[in-house]
């Protein structure tokens, strides 16, 4: 026995194992019918590398990050967690994603058929770039809100809430809408089968429209059947 480490090596029917325990790390290396693993525990990190019939993984835990790399058939992932960022990279068929969370930003890059997305959240801005069929969008705001973008059939929404405002942008079969609430203004922009409308109410300019709209404003607009009215007709909520 040595104060620095303990080492074990074995070879049993294709099985190879290296096990070491010291003040520096614990490491395991194994090969069982295509299976390989490296496991280390130290002040620096914990790492696992495995290959099981096309499966590969790297798992690391340290003050720096946690990382996972996996390949299952055509599936690949990198997952990292640290004070700096969280990153996920995946490839499932033609699906690729990068997800990162840090003091700097959150980024998502995805390619599903012709779908590409970049989502970033930082002290500077949140930006979403999406390409769905012929749909391209860039939406950015800095330091004040949360952004969500979803694609359900032909449904796309951005919902954002901050101390500044709440914004919703949606496209449902020709329906486009922006709903924003803040201390500054409320704005609605809609395009439904030829219907276009912009209505804004801000404390500096007008009090004709309440500073707070009901949560079900979209449903009420639809129930009032305003979308078949002339474009210039105004609708007010009590």
Describe this entry's structure for a reader:
This protein has a domain at 144-238. Mean pLDDT is 33; it is low at 1-238. The strands form three sheets. It has an eight-stranded antiparallel sheet with strand order 7-8-9-10-11-12-13-14, with no helix packed on it. Strands 1-2-3-4-5-6 form a six-stranded antiparallel sheet, with no helix packed on it. Strands 15-16-17-18-19-20 form a six-stranded antiparallel sheet, with no helix packed on it. Strand 19 and strand 20 form a beta hairpin. It has 238 residues and is an all-beta fold. It has one helix at residues 217-223, and strands at residues 5-12, 15-22, 26-32, 35-41, 46-52, 55-60, 67-72, 75-81, 86-92, 95-101, 106-112, 115-121, 126-132, 135-141, 145-152, 155-162, 165-172, 175-182, 185-192, 195-202.
* Multimeric organization: single chain
How many DSSP helices? 1
Note the beta-strand portion: over 45%
Backbone shape: elongated
Q: What is the number of E strands?
A: 20
Q: Report low-confidence residues grouped into runs of 5 or more.
A: 1-238
- Average of the residue pLDDT scores: 33
**Biggest pleated sheet:** 8 strands, antiparallel
The secondary-structure class comes to mainly beta
The ordered H/E elements are EEEEEEEEEEEEEEEEEEEEH
Spatial ordering of strands, largest sheet: 7-8-9-10-11-12-13-14
Helical fraction: under 10%
**What is the radius of gyration?**
26 Å
- Distance N terminus to C terminus? 83 Å
Protein name: Inverse autotransporter beta-domain domain-containing protein
Organism: Cerasibacillus terrae
